[in-house]
Automatic annotation (TrEMBL):
Keywords: ATP-binding, Helicase, Hydrolase, Nucleotide-binding. One of its GO terms (molecular function) is helicase activity. This is DEAD/DEAH box helicase domain-containing protein. It holds the Pfam family MZB. PANTHER family: ATP-DEPENDENT HELICASE HRQ1.
Length: 697
């Protein structure tokens, strides 16, 4: 069963009651959450129930060796996450045999977070879990909990491989929420091509957060990155300190603001959560680490700096305020981004609309293959297992045998390597060995970054923020697998940019769209990070574009693309429009708008446009999944193409700039320096594609 209702609607109670009944009857419970913070909060809630028979414990990366041994022997309510299930519980299933035999229920909390490639990995981990349970003779009930989601039963079936009943009626009482859409003003600053820049959403957030905290309004400010969380907290504290000096505000006021994000020690995160609940903290700048069901009741307001990716996330974040039934304030602060611009000018796209369907693709061979190897290492695979793992299993198994990863015998498929099969699946990354992030002067390991992300985030010259400390990357050595950093205090941020080529492998589906054609299929993408932008941290002002020398990367993935014949675009060229610039602008804007129709971020997808593509012989615009094998985003774009491309055109048209800016057609990732771009041409080109009457153009 999946329960898909709003924030603070009683979902936790709906699984706690049957779970505790099972524990009292001698059974065990496995609870899965996407974050450590949520599991820790659930453990606290369980402890407050004071049930003597309940032996609950978290089993995650922070759990000591001694605690792990006690949990295996004695715990009857284990709270963990997909990572630990994948790497520890399933590979060492024999050590947990008593727990598996008595397993009555598997709770998958906040399951709407399992989307895209990560969700596809979790789907296969849950199939491996079902197989382990069957080995020990248990058939536990799956109970999934989610924020309101479109087609929750269908999503839950794809996630677990099981038929699912759905509960979607939300009758919980709640106070009124005043929701504001806030667009920062255009400034006198100029970016590429002289385009005007808006004031950064993080700067607006810091202003609003300081105003709310000084008025004793308990507030969460959600931002998009760890760096931004630190920046907003620091800026807010500085502005509150100015109030202390200038108008005699209480001296302790700046100390009532902090940052919260992944990467902090567990005990530090718990202290921050407790301080927010108690009121010792009035303002917290956070990543989406606090989006999920952590109980931070008593909040009055939520600031959301930039579109959080999905309507589900938007309502989850807004729902953090007013959890005790009181009225609340929520503010969505638009970034300099096409989607944010579209939303603040088209509120009907947010209010009164169902949330998105959650996209994942468990049959992606690049996901399925590693998990079949992991399953075979746990228990040899048999023909009876093919149904559990899905219709693509047989073909993928043949490829694994050919590659020497599995050995096929009369009774099934066997893992014969001495290596850990689980190392083949990087469930939160995109493949490749992790890059060690190291401080040069001390040798201190600051963290790791997966290899594809390293090209964008820890390239030479990048600004890197770790727990409030700012570093500059002195060198990225891909062969050694290390990024060397040195402490610094730059007044700018960095954004990597790449150039991309794309070739069509196969068109899987197509249909006419206006005078052109829409396609969905397989492509090969070659991309190379070629430079990085330096922008002033507080204003976004462009300071420079520094070249980089990094190797190209190639991936096979899925894409949606549209073409227009020469007969349809010749009149535009005759009118003096730059067809290449028009296609380029339409590509950038469509990438920015796809997250409204597919559960993705613009950094999960990429695009290529050309006036004449060699594989199609036509003007072509591609948008592709940025993950090996695809993630389902482009396929969603194909199915919602008319709505998606109509919204793209409306986003360009509604922007108040004259020739194009980051709010409509410019992209921070563009390796061509956002040249050429033709805003008027993009409007005309999309009008032709969508067969809009010329008088509306």
């Amino acid at each position: 069963m999946i329960i898909a209702t709003g924030t603070a609607s009683g979902k936790s109670l709906s699984y706690l009651v049957p779970a505790l009944s099972a524990v009292l009857d001698g059974g065990t419970i496995l609870y899965l959450s996407p974050t450590k913070a949520l599991a820790a909060d659930q453990l606290r809630s369980l402890g407050e129930l004071d049930v003597p028979e309940l032996r609950a414990a978290t089993f995650d990366g922070d759990t000591s060796f001694e605690e792990r041994a006690w949990i295996r022997r004695h715990a009857n309510y284990v709270l963990t996450n997909p990572d630990m299930l994948h790497r520890t519980l399933l590979p060492r299933h024999t050590q947990w045999s008593a727990f598996w035999r008595r397993l009555r229920m598997i709770v998958v909390d906040e399951c709407h977070g399992y989307r895209g490639v990560f969700g596809s990995h979790v789907a296969q981990i849950l199939r491996r879990l079902r197989r382990i349970c069957a080995r020990y003779g248990s058939r536990p009930t799956f109970l999934l909990s989610s924020a309101t989601a479109s087609e929750p039963g269908t999503f839950a079936m794809r996630l677990t491989g099981l038929q699912m009943a759905e509960v979607t009626t939300d009758a919980s009482p709640r106070g009124a929420t005043t929701f504001a859409l806030w667009e920062p003003p255009l400034t006198d600053l100029r970016g590429e091509g002289g385009a005007p820049l808006r004031r950064p959403a993080t700067s607006e957030s810091a202003d609003l957060l300081s105003d709310l905290v000084s008025a004793d309004v308990r507030t969460l400010a959600f931002v998009r990155s760890r760096r931004a969380a630190e920046s907003v907290a620091l800026t807010t504290r500085a502005r509150l300190q100015d109030l202390v000096v200038d108008v005699g505000a209480p001296a302790e006021l700046p100390g009532k603001v902090a940052a919260y994000r992944a990467g902090y020690l567990a005990e530090d995160r718990r202290k921050l959560e407790k301080a927010l609940r108690s009121g010792d903290l009035l303002g917290l700048a956070t990543t989406n680490a606090l989006e999920l069901g952590v109980d931070v009741s008593g909040l009055d307001a939520v600031l959301i700096a930039g579109w959080p990716g999905t309507r589900a996330s938007l309502w989850q974040q807004a729902g953090r305020a007013g959890r005790d039934g009181q009225d609340a304030l929520a503010v969505l602060i638009a970034r300099d981004d096409p989607l944010d611009t579209y939303l603040v000018h088209h509120p009907e796209a947010l209010f009164g609309r169902p949330v998105e369907a959650i996209v994942l693709d468990p049959d992606n061979p690049y996901v399925l293959g590693p998990h079949l190897c992991a399953a075979a290492s746990e228990i040899p695979l048999t023909p009876d297992d093919l149904e559990i793992f899905g219709p693509a299993t047989k073909e993928v198994l043949s490829g694994l045998v050919e590659d020497g990863l599995l050995r096929e015998r009369a009774t099934g498929w066997f893992w014969t390597s001495r290596e850990r099969a689980t190392d083949l699946a990087d469930i939160r990354g995109a493949g490749g060995a992790p890059i060690q992030v190291v401080e040069m002067s001390t040798g201190r390991l600051l963290g790791t970054v997966d290899e594809p992300s390293a090209h964008m985030s820890v390239h030479t010259g990048a600004v890197y923020v770790h727990q409030g400390e700012t570093f500059l990357v002195a060198e990225l050595d891909l062969e050694a697998g290390v990024a060397l950093l040195e402490a610094g205090t730059p007044e700018y941020t960095t954004f990597a940019r790449d150039v991309t080529d794309i070739s069509v492998i196969e068109s899987l589906r197509s249909h006419p769209l206006g005078p052109g054609e829409l396609h969905f299929g397989s492509v090969e993408v070659t991309s190379q990070v070629v430079s990085y932008l330096k922008r002033r941290a507080q204003s976004g002002e462009l300071l420079g574009d520094e070249p980089l020398d990094l190797p190209p990367r190639t991936l096979r993935t899925r894409a949606v693309w549209w073409t227009l014949p020469a007969s349809a675009i010749t009149p535009l060229a005759e009118d003096g429009l730059d067809l290449g610039g028009a296609a380029h602008a339409a590509e950038h804007a469509s990438i920015g708008l796809l997250p409204l129709f597919a559960t993705c971020d613009r950094w999960d997808i990429g695009g290529v446009s050309t006036e004449l593509h060699p594989d199609t012989g036509l003007l072509t615009v591609f948008v592709y999944d940025g993950h090996e094998g695809g993630a389902g985003f482009a396929e969603r774009g194909y199915s919602r193409a008319l709505d998606w491309l109509t919204a793209t055109r409306e986003a360009i048209a509604s922007c108040e700039c004259e020739r194009g800016c980051p709010s409509c057609i410019q992209s921070p990732k563009c390796g061509n320096g956002n040249e050429p771009l033709d805003k008027a041409g993009a409007l005309r080109l999309l009008a032709v594609l969508l067969s809009i009457d010329p008088c509306e153009v």
